[in-house]
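Task: fold both queries, return tokens.
Query 1:
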Amino acid sequence: MPRSPEQNEAMRAATRERIRGTAMRLFARHGYATVNMRRIAAEAGMSTGLVYRHFATKEELYGDLVGEAAAGLNATAARLRGPGSPAELLRAFCEGFLRDLAGDTEFVDFYLLMNQAFTHGTAGHGGPEGAPPAVRDLVEGNTALLRATVELIERGRAEGGFRRGPADELATCFFATLGGLVTMRSAVGDGFAVPSAAVVLAPLLEEDGHR
């Protein structure tokens, strides 16, 4: 019995996601330059031709992954700039990050891929202006998220409940902590103890340090 158009579309979508997931893992763990489409196809358990049906080049596949990351950063920045208590907005972001970190390794691979792309965009190709468009978007998204966090901390201090200190330095230390946790999760594996949001936010929020 022939498959319906809906079934064919579901199969195409599943294949595409398998390619993306495999590519993300390989790019994150081995670097963009050392991975080719043949290797991605072999790891995904499919023919190279099938991979090329979904992504014409390695650059297109990489750009698709990096573009998703850029969109996620911009969406998070928009949420942090939205209405609500600064402390609750920051806590919700941190709790979501830690939930993802406690899950499977896909989140770790995705984060490591973003870090590689940041380096690609800031150090390679003469800086962001010379980097591929998706990488430039990622660098801009990261800048937007950092600025939104600085603004949130400044607003939170004005309303009370945030610790003293330069907002830009506090935001930098916050994201350095999150990045360090991802690195530890990658190195330790399933034995990694994911901290609570209260522990991570203790340097920022006065009340979280006493829970």
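Query 1 returned. Query 2:
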Amino acid sequence: MHLYGSDTSPYARRIRMFAHYHKLDLPYTCLDIFAQDDRQTMVEHNPTRKIPFLTDGELNIADSGLIMRYLTEQKQLSEMTWWQANQLVQIDACNDSFVELLICKRSEFDTSEDKLFFNLQNERVTALLGYLNEQCVKDVFLESSYLKISLYCLLDWILFRDLYDLQNFDELLAFHQTQSNLPGVTQTDPRHS
């Protein structure tokens, strides 16, 4: 098995941290998806043209959630409950909206402009951050290593990219601080890439 991603991707980081957490030997290659050779590698293995992706022989797995499920099955780790899996959907939706907004900003769009797409993304991130602020303190949430890692990676990426002021979300800020000692946090910190 081999993982490909970017050091600044919260999705790649969560898989790298998941591997650290469970002491899995998972070789990793950082790709610059805007460099021609690395982009070609990505396209060859992942038609969605996204990172991360995992290769295992002839098998290519093209999504962080599926990679986690594959590793869980291959290494016989505990699976998430349906409630936990639904929380992951909320984290992913929030993360996806932030990615879309960041791409728009980098494309020199004013994401605060009153436009349907921007309004929907901004509404979604605010609602989901409020929702996750309530969920992240529940024992059933904290029992899942992948949920903790995924939320930590989202929050740390928001702070790293200065995407949103989290000051009104006390539980999320406390969660980020508490989980900053998770295995792999230091080794995968995007600030060191």
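Both queries returned. Flag for query 2: The CA atoms of residues 158 and 164 lie 6 Å apart.
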